[in-house]
Amino acid sequence: HAADAHRTDLMTITRFVLNEQSKYPESRGDFTILLSHIVLGCKFVCTSVNKAGLAKLIGLAGETNIQASRYSNECCVDAIFYGEEQKKLDVLSNEVFIKALVSSGRTRILVSEEDEEAIFVEPSKRGRYCVVFDPLDGSSNIDCGVSIGTIFGIYMVKDDHEPTLDDVLQPGKQMVAAGYCMYGSSCTLVLSTGNGVNGFTLDPSLGEFILTHPDIKIPKKGKIYSVNEGNAKNWDSPMAKYVEKCKFPKDGSSSKSLRYIGSMVADVHRTLLYGGTFMYPADKKSPNGKLRVLYEVFPMSFLIEKAGGQAFTGKQRALDLVPTKIHERSPVFLGSYDEIEEIKALYAAEGQKE
Ligand code: P6P
Questions:
Q1: Angle at 340 (CA atoms; ends 298, 169), nearest 5 degrees
Q2: How far is it, in rounded angstroms, from Cα 62 to Cα 141?
């Protein structure tokens, strides 16, 4: 009964990662434990985002937080009691992820979009992994119900030295894993631990992420471009030329469609599955673009590359960038291999003129 197999042979994210990690005899399950705590955080945020949306709609949000009641201690996620003063969801999500990551006992340094300073985990709870994350990217979209998400990247420190910022100011190509969890009509977690990209969808009745998108590969070409055209007056010449070509192709091909949600996780998820490009270029207003290197550009570039695409900053391969500050920004062009090749050629030609 092969047809029934997938119904009874539930491939959960934990089982999937355990299978993958078992290929490395030396691995002691630390990554699996770390991931299970990240997954816990995603499940919590998923329910909170959905409830907050509802609470807002039925007017409860003004008074209280509709949060899950007390969690048992073993998952070490502090209880979020009923009645707590309404906290912005991104602040609450940040607290949940930090508590979950620290309590995993496998992290050393945490960098969050919500915290100005890096968090150095206390020695008694220290592990080998450094996690950089945006707990709720695109949270300004919550009120209109647009999909938002958590983005994370994971570095591993080589030895037991006293942690310093240098452990996280590493090029994205040093990441051992990256992923995002999109909170939309369904809750989808996309992950790469270095070999390919896989997508898992939360089955609320089981409380488990089930493998639904095995071995995702981004199409080599794409019919969609994704950028905030409102910034067009500030674009540099290669960017303007690429978008002009998308709109008015000279080779007789049909023009591309513009799709821009304004929530990076949603725009990148569509790009990963359907192909095309997602771009947040530098412009005269923001010379380094808007998106943050460590917990937006690197994790998404890691995933796109592992799915067969490319990610470029306008000057170099995005994952080769060496950040000097933990909240540094960079322009990014990511997506289908052939599309990014065209953008790289336009920037190279511009470079030759200079
Ligand atoms: P703009 C959301 O605020 C965000 O950080 C990303 O999720 C999104 O891709 C980008 O900013 C949208 O920025 O300037 O186009 O509104």
A1: 20
A2: 18
Q: Give the distance (Å) from ligand 1 centre to CA of residue 261.
A: 9
Nearest to 108 by CA among 195, 170, 24: 170
What is the structure's pLDDT at 5? Answer: 59
- Ligand 1, pocket-test mutation among 263, 295, 330, most atoms within 8 A of CB: 263
Contacts of 22 (CB under 8 A, 6+ apart): none
Query: 346 by DSSP, 3-state: which?
Result: helix
Q: CA 268: distance to chain centroid?
A: 9
SS3 content of the chain, % helix, strand, coil (to 5): 40, 20, 40
CB distance 262 to ligand 1 below 6 Å? yes
Kindly indicate whether the ipTM for this predicted assembly is greater than 0.95, answering yes or no.
yes
pLDDT in tens, 78-126: 334 344 445 688 889 999 999 999 999 999 999 999 999 999 999 999 9
Cβ–ligand 1 distance for 263 under 6 Å, the answer: yes
For residue 44, what are the CA distances in angstroms to 19, 78, 194, 195, 262? 25, 12, 26, 27, 23
CA of 53 to the centre of ligand 1 (A): 20
Q: What is the per-residue pLDDT across 45-89, written as a single tens digit (0 to 9) for each?
A: 999 888 876 666 565 544 444 444 444 333 333 334 344 445 688
Q: Is 138 in the pocket of ligand 1 (CB under 6 A)?
A: yes
Measured in Å, residue 175 CA sits from the centre of ligand 1 at 23
Could you read off the pLDDT of 338-348 as tens digits, one per residue? 999 999 999 99
